[in-house]
Amino acid sequence: MSKRILVTGGAGFLGSHLCDVLIGAGHDVICLDNFFTGAKANVAHLLGHPRFELMRHDVTFPLYVEVDAIYNLACPASPVHYQHDPVQTTKTSVHGAINMLGLAKRLRARILQASTSEVYGDPEIHPQPESYWGRVNPIGPRSCYDEGKRCAETLFFDYHRQHGLDIKVMRIFNTYGPRMHPGDGRVVSNFIVQALKGEDITIYGDGQQTRSFCYVDDLITGMVALMETEKGFTGPVNIGNPGEFTMLALAEAVLRQVGGPSKLRFMPLPQDDPRQRQPDITLAAAKLGWAPRVPLDDGLARTIAYFRTRLGG
Ligand code: NAD
Ligand code: UDP
Ligand code: UDP
């Protein structure tokens, strides 16, 4: 059945892919964004579509629209962006969650929160199951993001318990793909852009820290599947690709495909940088029948093709 769906942060990397999938499934989509890290270009191909509406708005302010469901993705996601104005980052997660939950409460609409693996901080348990409470520094440079997202989860569960709201909480692990911001400082976009420009690849620390990288199409499939689970199932659910790589291995994989003269340049490790990160996706498999399909090399090839076009080379 066709629905009217609000996507906050809809002009961002993940949000724009979600808008594509929802429009493709026949829904009406309101794409809301303040364009802090998102761009009209990400949804330019949807402008003019009769079921698509683009709205400039900041989620830290109240919003009065009429919708059946809400995907709350508004929040800068890369450390460079979220540390640029850390107070605004916390406000976006916390005030944004309150406003979107207030909206969902008035409308009795289902609402999904884009939470993050960062709620696990620098984890002592590996891989991380949803039952793990995490190890987060409350006062460091990453805290505006990590604690903001943790507080948003708290608000979601309190609105659920206190007001019976129909919530879904998704913990997203590192995701990459076309429409990542080339200057957002995340590792996959950095390495690809550096390799394409023939610049040195910046490895922070010794490069032995690990991350698990999920291709965007897999992630969005999991997000929509979670939104469509039965009422009463709240999550949190980890969505990510358990394939775990060191940053050195990632650099090699990018250089294997791009070629060129780039060398590795070792730089200081940022404060509170987690050593390792891998999702336990047992719950997603059981509840959503979901598993990622796109292997790293295939996803990298599609992402490299995107950046090649975007950089005009
Ligand atoms: P992104 O920066 O591309 O997208 C975020 C979007 O939110 C942007 O379009 C930005 O302009 C918008 N935005 C920011 N503050 C806003 C505000 N106050 N009001 C309205 N819009 C605002 O990042 P992304 O990778 O697409 O991330 C989307 C969501 O997924 C975020 O909530 C992020 O925390 C979460 N997430 C992403 C990843 C990942 O690896 N990409 C991992 C974990 C969680
Ligand atoms: N809100 C909104 N749109 C709505 C309803 C509420 O933006 O349609 C915001 C409003 O700013 C409110 C917040 O959501 O302060 C929380 O709403 P709730 O009903 O939980 O609390 P209250 O209205 O009592 O503050
Ligand atoms: N990183 C790196 N070089 C870069 C950018 C990032 O070695 O140019 C490292 C970073 O220190 C971290 C990992 O790559 O260990 C992932 O960083 P990203 O910012 O993409 O995501 P997050 O730390 O939020 O998982």
From TrEMBL:
<keyword id="KW-0210">Decarboxylase</keyword>
<keyword id="KW-0456">Lyase</keyword>
<dbReference type="Pfam" id="PF01370">
    <property type="entry name" value="Epimerase"/>
</dbReference>
<dbReference type="InterPro" id="IPR001509">
    <property type="entry name" value="Epimerase_deHydtase"/>
</dbReference>
<dbReference type="GO" id="GO:0048040">
    <property type="term" value="F:UDP-glucuronate decarboxylase activity"/>
</dbReference>
<dbReference type="GO" id="GO:0033320">
    <property type="term" value="P:UDP-D-xylose biosynthetic process"/>
</dbReference>
<dbReference type="GO" id="GO:0005737">
    <property type="term" value="C:cytoplasm"/>
</dbReference>
<feature type="domain" description="NAD-dependent epimerase/dehydratase">
    <location>
        <begin position="5"/>
        <end position="240"/>
    </location>
</feature>
<protein>
    <submittedName>
        <fullName>UDP-glucuronate decarboxylase</fullName>
        <ecNumber>4.1.1.35</ecNumber>
    </submittedName>
</protein>
<dbReference type="GO" id="GO:0070403">
    <property type="term" value="F:NAD+ binding"/>
</dbReference>
<dbReference type="GO" id="GO:0042732">
    <property type="term" value="P:D-xylose metabolic process"/>
</dbReference>
<dbReference type="InterPro" id="IPR036291">
    <property type="entry name" value="NAD(P)-bd_dom_sf"/>
</dbReference>
<keyword id="KW-0963">Cytoplasm</keyword>
<keyword id="KW-0520">NAD</keyword>
<dbReference type="InterPro" id="IPR044516">
    <property type="entry name" value="UXS-like"/>
</dbReference>
